[in-house]
Amino acid sequence: MHLLPRRRHPAAGRGERGARVKVMTLPIERPWWRQRWQMLVAGFAMSYLTGMSIASIVSTKGDWHDGLGWERTFMLAVHNLGLPRLLDRAMLVMPWMGTNITLVPLTIVVATLVWWQKKRPHLAVQLVVTQVGSNLLNPGLKYLYDRARPDLWPKRGQYGWASYPSGHAISTVAVLLTIAWVLERAYGWRWQYWAIPVVMLVSLYSRVYLGVHWPTDVIGGMLIGCVWLAFTMLAFRERSRGMDFNRPAPGPPDVAAA
Is 81 among the domain residues? Predict the structure, then answer.
């Protein structure tokens, strides 16, 4: 009787029976119309309540319309410090990256490319919903509190309506970070995680530097944006599918012939 040599099974690792198999998990996206809409409604409400809570706390600490003592001191220090001419110009330009005048067209372009080019409607809807929620939160809270803008020196740059909260802060936190996330998921890019934080920091600092927002307007807007961002990320999170990492691989079979 002649025995054929045993063949090595490709899933047997280094030839040892019971070797572990490393399996890649793949995301399972919901259809774009079947989202966790209840969580999004709850997130919008929680973001609005966050803005109301911050306004309530600030108003109990001092004069709501004339700013708290530390706010006035901080703003005057920022103004007296000044910046070189080139950086001063940057402070006038960068805030346009955080306004709806630029973010709405950018959202439309990114969402369209992700949907039609990459066939990822789930991500496109996530970005659009985040943008729409940010647009609604800002005017809703401004109308409710109608806080006066600072009057410590002549205001510069783009601004409008009431001071609280900072719409730039809400949008730069919620929308720009969502754009960064969507670009990574759709295209595998990571450079935006370095660029967007710089835009955020300069844009938010500029609101105080230009004299158009109290610091608590910016802080409140950032916290509102963080809450809304967290809820949208949870609502649009993807499930994963894959094989059991703890399942041992089959051992090499014995192949014999008489």
Answer: no
